[in-house]
Specification:
The complex is a heterodimer of chains A (379) and B (260).
Chain A: H1 3-12, H2 14-39, H3 43-64, H4 69-93, H5 98-121, H6 133-136, H7 144-163, H8 165-180, H9 185-207, H10 212-226, H11 230-254, H12 260-278, H13 284-312, E1 321-322, H14 323-329, H15 336-345, E2 349-353, E3 356-359, H16 361-378
Chain B: E1 9-18, E2 21-31, E3 36-40, H1 47-54, E4 62-67, E5 70-71, H2 72-75, E6 79-82, H3 96-101, H4 105-108, H5 116-128, H6 144-156, E7 162-166, H7 174-189, E8 193-197, H8 204-207, E9 210-215, E10 217-223, H9 224-227, H10 230-237, H11 245-249
Parallel strand pairs in B: 3-8, 3-9, 6-7, 7-8
Antiparallel strand pairs in B: 1-2, 1-4, 4-5, 9-10
Helix pairs in contact in B: 5-6
The chains are: A mainly alpha (379), B alpha/beta (260).
Chain lengths: 379, 260
């Protein structure tokens, strides 16, 4: 399928349009809310919440016999919320640390959810099929009605986030200071955690409980690479989430036998990989170049200073010194010849004959500049 | 007559426990307005906990705290707080000016965003700590001393009458320490009360005029000249004090007894 066909499909194909729109919305909401989860070092909380949602889905079905997404999502949200309360209770009442608390709740709730799913599958009804889609997500089951619900809920979440922008920022950066100012930090935490639960359950139908936490963590972690501003980070994260959601949904719907959830997660992983390597300042490639440039500069300075020390012992500046002496002085670190050539290009040293080198006037000036600079730094 | 004067900070019978272990035991504290007070004591003495319970961040098992005669909840606008520098993530995506403006959030109130006035006040506070050139810097680019000064500026915009500071000298160089001390003394001469968790016994006499010696219990509290004695230091540090006031005053006689 080529690009034109996909564009056409987006406009006229009901399924493709619905799926792409739904995945886009889920990407925006989870991307924006994920920023707070990442900044508050609660990335794993998202994982625990989404896994904890599974028994909620199953129980909602057993109680109502309905597979209406709204019913199941409510069940998921309730269970995700209960799971979060469990984690808080374990942290407050016992000496178990947070990573263990998250692990316990995640596996216990998820295990319970799997048991319930198996139980439901053995129920003597024909309607139960499809619940296990919530494990890895099945975007094709999205209906226009579902997307409208997602859009409304998502908009509500984002509006609340905007309204409490200042408060959530304070909560995330320095909650104790916020508390000393009189802001009810526990309530704010409660609200923000609630918004995160909503963001997670919005994506369960499309991405599934197993992989949903990737949609919380990955866009935010990518966005952090590109910016140092909270506002921009939230916007970028939402865009990354939306891009990954839509492209994942489109790729999986135009390719046979490609599950939606994992494809979306692969798309966001690609964004993460690009951000980790290419982003300015924080990117790996950037750091590598900066380090290399620094090392080279230091090596050049070292050779120049060594030559300066040798020159001090002679009155005649143009007295040549063999490169092999410089090589010994640099403790055999190597690359002396290459450094000398580079220094010559900059007019700081000159090649007297074959293998002998001397400082130029410019080189003397440069040495004085370097020494002065180092002196200032020491003081 | 002294007793009838309203205290800037008054703590009565304060007891704080984590689980079943008392961290602070039956603390009484009377700090008059306009003093610069050091809170000293060994590790685990409850210095941070004392500050946090005055701020209502830690719930006491017993006792009460009064700021200018009323509970903290009614006097929030009078109190400024400088937490430990390590208590926040300095890689948080925000600028120096933004952090300083957080000191105004309590005055701005719910939902409303900081405006031009808040921005100007924050800039003024940054000038006072000589950090105005860093206003738009990302906070992860700051050195330890600069971080500390940003936190001080944030407290300054609170325009409080009582300041509580948790180790503002932690990890700063000598120049910055001197600048901070001057700032604190300036606050005192404006009639504000400043309580500082402090680690360096050597500088207590030089920097402060009031001191509280703490080791789970309050050992002594009052003017430095009266209560910062060898005896009280021994009581506070259980004999393990590597500092003696007498030995500092008569530099020739080493008091070996302290270390043995």
């Amino acid at each position: 399928m080529n690009l034109m066909q996909i564009l056409k499909g987006l406009m006229f194909d009901y399924t493709l349009r619905t799926v792409a729109l739904g995945s886009g919305i889920l990407g925006i909401v989870s991307g924006a809310l994920g920023v707070y989860a990442v900044l508050r070092k609660q990335s794993l909380l998202g994982d625990a919440m989404s896994h904890a949602a599974l028994p909620g889905i199953a129980i909602a079905f057993i109680l109502t016999g309905s597979k209406a997404p709204l019913v199941l999502i409510l069940g998921a949200a309730a269970a995700g919320w209960v799971g979060t309360l469990f984690i808080m209770a374990v942290l407050n009442k016992t000496r178990i640390k947070d990573d263990s608390a998250l692990g316990i709740v995640l596996s216990v709730f998820f295990g319970f959810g799997l048991v319930l799913l198996t139980f439901i599958q053995k129920m003597p009804k024909a309607t139960q099929a499809g619940l296990d889609n919530f494990l890895f997500g099945q975007a094709a089951t999205l209906m226009e009605r579902d997307v409208i619900i997602m859009g409304l809920l998502g908009a509500a979440v984002l509006i609340i986030m905007m309204v409490f922008w200042k408060e959530f920022k304070l909560l995330s950066f320095d909650s104790e200071f916020g508390s000393s100012l009189g802001f009810p930090i526990k309530k704010l935490d409660f609200i923000l955690t609630g918004l995160l639960v909503v963001a997670i359950v919005l994506g369960l139908q499309t991405v599934g409980v197993v992989l949903m936490s990737a949609m919380i963590v990955a866009p935010a972690a990518s966005a952090r690479q590109w910016t140092d501003k909270l506002g921009l980070m939230v916007a970028l994260s939402a865009v990354f989430g939306a891009l990954a959601g839509m492209s994942g949904a489109i790729i999986s719907s135009v390719t046979a036998h490609l599950p939606t959830g994992p494809t979306i997660v692969l798309c966001i992983s690609f964004v993460v990989a690009v951000s980790m390597t290419l982003a300015p300042n924080r990117g790996l490639l950037w750091r590598w170049f900066r380090e290399r440039r620094n090392n080279r500069r230091l090596r050049l300075e070292a050779v120049l200073l060594d030559l300066g020390m040798l020159a001090e012992q002679h009155e005649d500046l143009s007295h040549g010194h063999p490169a092999s002496v410089l090589n010994t002085m640099s403790m055999g670190q190597g690359g002396v010849e290459r450094s000398l050539e580079e220094l010559e290009r900059r007019g700081l040293v000159q090649n007297i004959n074959e293998d002998e080198w001397a400082l130029t006037q410019g080189g003397v000036k440069e040495i004085n500049r370097i020494l002065e600079h180092r002196e200032v730094k020491k003081v | 007559m002294d007793n009838e004067e309203i205290k800037a900070i008054r703590v009565d019978d304060l007891t704080v426990a984590y689980r079943d272990k008392p961290v602070l035991w039956d603390i009484d504290l009377n700090v008059p307005p306009g003093v610069l007070m050091a809170i000293v004591g060994p590790n685990g003495a409850g210095k941070t906990t004392l500050i946090k319970s005055i701020l209502g961040l830690v719930k006491p098992a017993a006792g009460q705290v009064l700021i200018y005669g009323k509970p903290y909840q009614q006097q929030r606008s009078l109190v400024g707080y400088v937490p430990q520098r390590e208590s926040v993530d300095w890689d948080f995506p925000t600028s120096v000016l933004d952090v300083v403006m957080m000191g105004r959030y309590g005055i701005i109130g719910w939902i409303r965003r900081p405006g031009r006035e808040d921005r100007e006040l924050a800039m003024q506070a940054l000038e006072k700590v000589r950090m105005q050139d860093f206003a738009n810097r990302q906070i992860s680019q700051l050195s330890g001393g600069q971080q500390q000064r940003v936190f001080l500026a944030r407290a300054l915009v609170q325009d409080a009458k009582v300041y509580l500071m948790d180790e503002p000298f932690q990890g700063v160089d000598a120049t910055t320490e001197k600048a901070i001390v001057e700032l604190l003394q300036q606050l005192r001469s404006d009639g504000r009360t400043v309580a500082v968790v402090h680690h360096d016994l050597q500088t207590v006499i030089e920097y402060f005029d009031w001191v509280t010696l703490l080791n789970v219990r309050s050992i002594a509290s009052g003017p430095v000249a009266e209560v910062f004695t060898d005896e009280n230091l021994h009581l506070t540090y259980a004999g393990r004090v590597a500092f003696s006031r007498e030995s500092k005053e008569q530099k020739n006689s080493l008091s070996d007894g302290d270390k043995q």
